[in-house]
Amino acid sequence: MAISMLTAFWAVSLLFVITPGADWAYAISAGLRGRWVMPAVAGMLSGHFLATLVVAAGVGSLIAGHPLALTLLTLAGCTYLMWLGGNLLLSPAVPGAERAGVEESGKRWAFKGFCVSGLNPKVFLLFLALLPQFTDPQSAWPLPLQIMVLGLVHLCSSLVVYLAVGYGAKAVLSTRPGVAKAVGRASGVVMIGVALGLIVGQLR
């Protein structure tokens, strides 16, 4: 693959990553909890990697060509986002606050992060539309391999930005519980808004 193609894709990918959305909201909520930024980000990146695998394997085109499958995926993702958003809205994160039991385990945060991005049809559809445009049919590299490389470039950008968002929220809001609650509720509203927007788009 040409370096110019990778650079062009990186620029587009970075624009997508730095746009606040459900992933940002989840990274902020993890940062407000204190020590769960890394597992939360790892979970979200796993969801993005899954979307890359789906597109590289050619499964994405099959799903996109079946409206019922796409609708079910959208509803599942939106339901989960609304559930997470509702929890943040009603019980906003407080800096350093801990919850007892499995709910505050790293695996739990990683799994929720995976669901936030892996069940987000917006991520899937974006990858389906975006990744193939930056491949080169004349390249000696197989098309699936090119898509995987592009996906890894996106993961690197996401890793840097989401860690910065999560740890930035922790550093800035750790001594401001009132502001942290407001930001937590705003994150919940963002998640619910993303979910409702996806549902409206699917109905259209």
TrEMBL record:
Question: What InterPro entries would the database entry show?
Answer: LeuE-type
Q: Which UniProt keywords apply?
A: Cell membrane, Membrane, Transmembrane, Transmembrane helix
Cellular location of this protein? Cell membrane
List GO molecular-function terms, semicolon-separated: amino acid transmembrane transporter activity
- Please tell me whether the keyword Cell membrane is annotated for this protein: yes
Q: What is the lineage of its organism?
A: Bacteria, Pseudomonadati, Pseudomonadota, Gammaproteobacteria, Pseudomonadales
Q: Where are the transmembrane segments?
A: 37-56, 68-89, 109-131, 143-165, 185-203
A single cellular component GO annotation? plasma membrane
Membrane topology per the record? Multi-pass membrane protein
Name the UniProt record assigns to this protein: Lysine transporter LysE
Keyword Transmembrane attributed: yes
Superkingdom of origin organism: Bacteria
Q: Which Pfam families match?
A: LysE
